Amino acid sequence: xxxxxxxxxxxxxxxxxxxxxxxxxxxxxxxxxxxxxxxxxxxxxxxxxxxxxxxxxxxxxxxxxxxxxxxxxxxxxxxxxxxxxxxxxxxxxxxxxxxxxxxxxxxxxxxxxxxxxxxxxxxxxxxxxxxxxxxxxxxxxxxxxxxxxxxxxxxxxxxxxxxxxxxxxxxxxxxxxxxxxxxxxxxxxxxxxxxxxxxxxxxxxxxxxxxxxxxxxxxxxxxxxxxxxxxxxxxxxxxxxxxxxxxxxxxxxxxxxxxxxxxxxxxxxxxxxxxxxxxxxxxxxxxxxxxxxxxxxxxxxxxxxxxxxxxxxxxxxxxxxxxxxxxxxxxxxxxxxxxxxxxxxxxxxxxxxxxxxxxxxxxxxxxxxxxxxxxxxxxxxxxxx
Amino acid sequence: xxxxxxxxxxxxxxxxxxxxxxxxxxxxxxxxxxxxxxxxxxxxxxxxxxxxxxxxxxxxxxxxxxxxxxxxxxxxxxxxxxxxxxxxxxxxxxxxxxxxxxxxxxxxxxxxxxx
Lengths: 385, 115
Prior knowledge:
The structure holds 2 protein chains of 2 kinds.
Chain A: H1 7-12, E1 20-24, H2 50-62, E2 67-71, H3 81-90, E3 94-99, H4 106-113, E4 118-123, H5 129-136, H6 140-153, E5 160-165, H7 173-182, E6 186-191, H8 198-205, H9 209-222, E7 254-257, E8 262-264, E9 275-278, H10 284-291, H11 293-298, H12 313-316, H13 321-326, H14 342-351
Parallel strand pairs in A: 1-2, 1-7, 2-3, 3-4, 4-5, 5-6
Antiparallel strand pairs in A: 7-8, 8-9
Helix pairs in contact in A: 4-6
Chain B: E1 3-4, E2 33-35, E3 39-44, E4 47-52, E5 57-61, H1 64-72, H2 79-85, H3 93-105, E6 109-111
Antiparallel strand pairs in B: 1-5, 2-6, 3-4, 4-5
């Protein structure tokens, strides 16, 4: 037998099709979360039609993409959403969709519970109404809880309670775990990225250095039944690597298809710099995935750049490309949340630059902007006496 | 060569999958096996990806020969014969047996009735 390369190295060279494909169906959303990574709100007139969506699902079936992670915006507000879910399942493409719960009525929940091929992820960013609604908007906690109760009552076991870990909710991890358990759900924790509107509030919402340590310890101690989407690989710098591939999958095993069919390297990188093509181009999604110059570059061996001499580089691989990009850091340097503190230094240097960090290439926020709440202590101007 | 049991569509946090793989359960090389009907197989340059729609788990076959073995299972009276037909030598057989045991544990393959 030939000695095989480690899987992560195999994957870094790219696969015949993505393992984890996120498809954002619409930029329309009933909520205006302050940290929305796709700056969603209003529908884009160029949104893929039902026919386009079905053609794309046909292509995903041919490529043997086993399942898609459908998000948005709020995907369930598309009138053809359930039709598309049925179409995907009938074409051997499993569906996991993220929702704020608005359309999860008892009858929908019963329908969802009946299918092995559909999984549901309810977004909630606070274990209490006060913490959640501050970022996701008034009424969003009750809406999510109503959906969770409907799924539980319908006998849907193991749906996901999906939480973006923030400075404000990182102290509620036990409560989230309890909430999931009480509803027969599985807890999923993911990292806050400074993508979309998230870039505007990242400095106030991202966990502090000591909170990151607490999060790491919590994951190691209690994480047996917690999903993370591999999103915390930057924490590997603390010592023990979190489970999973511990690599940036952007353009290698992961990509994003946005509502207008644009293909980006990952869901957190909606910017022209990371746009590989469009599913409506000649050759479709398969050609974008297999032949785009951007993805080709991402699949080449990466240099560690400024991190190459760091002892933790083999563990954290320099962290998240998108997090660096949208905080104005070089993508071959430390992650802004580098657990060894190199990110803070880099951010301080970047703050002295005349060049502002890049902005997302598109913004579908509703006019009037996200929910008018102020996070944290910024309400009180610091008084220096 | 190995089947890596680490993957789900998302990986669990925490220690379980970081620990060394437990010794594979005994695997009966001499009975007939087949892929579970709910498993899809996607060939990849390194071998193949397997996805189980029922358990929503992924597995990786890190070797093209293993892919040949897995695909041959249903056509052969025993896993041993499927391995032989794929060119697995006696020396290599224990590694393939372990990999098959892992696939059986994760329900990717299942025993089938002898004809």
